[in-house]
């Protein structure tokens, strides 16, 4: 039987679930990179919100993984940096976030390879980007949208459930430091609507990963939070979902300060619950953010 039939079916599914703006930016990325470094990128995959059916043009980045036979070096690095600088000027929003890998890197996994080039908020870096972690490989294996190259399922992709759990647990502490500043301006990040959306849904997402081993979209993580956590937390979760999914709708809070108070308390409580529930940190006491009684 011809192999074209599965490819056509896969392409149809991707078209149905992937935001056209994300697909258009991926096509533009390929066109610019192909012109700068011909025949270099052999595989291009969308991950993140675009792959999880939750792309929001005003909030989301276009997350990608580009794959080649070898890592880019010297002249290719310079050409890629120039190409991404041009892309950032021509298409600043939504920004590109992604990494450049070799095929062997997909099989070796994030802990088995050295850091390398990537893009963060549209800016190209030779190393030090934030997407070299188990979550990226997990989304590649489960949900990636193939723009060019073979399906990730056919590449011998690395899979590490325990690594994903440990990464999520470490991210809980890292995110607390990001979202809750330990000084008089504590919670300043949470005064802004996008900060509330990132913190509340992000913490729901980490809790979901620790509970299930599956990476959800941010919207699905929020819905999980409504199902999982006590009704006292539903208002702040609904507010975070409103910001993400219906920003034109009325805010559920009278003041940003009131919203920040609830967001800050929720983030702390879910972090405590995530730690208590993780098999890596048993015995830390009764969870502070109780799930609903079953």
UniProtKB/TrEMBL annotation:
Domain Polymerase nucleotidyl transferase: 38-73
InterPro entries documented for this protein: AadA_C, NT_sf, Polymerase_NTP_transf_dom
UniProt entry tagged with the keyword Cell division: no
Catalysed reaction, written as an equation: streptomycin + ATP = 3''-O-adenylylstreptomycin + diphosphate
Keyword field: Transferase
CDD domains referenced in this protein's UniProt entry, alphabetically: NT_KNTase_like
EC number: 2.7.7.47
Top-rank taxon, per record: Bacteria
The Adenylyltransferase AadA C-terminal domain, residue ranges: 199-251
Name by which UniProt lists this protein: Aminoglycoside (3'') (9) adenylyltransferase
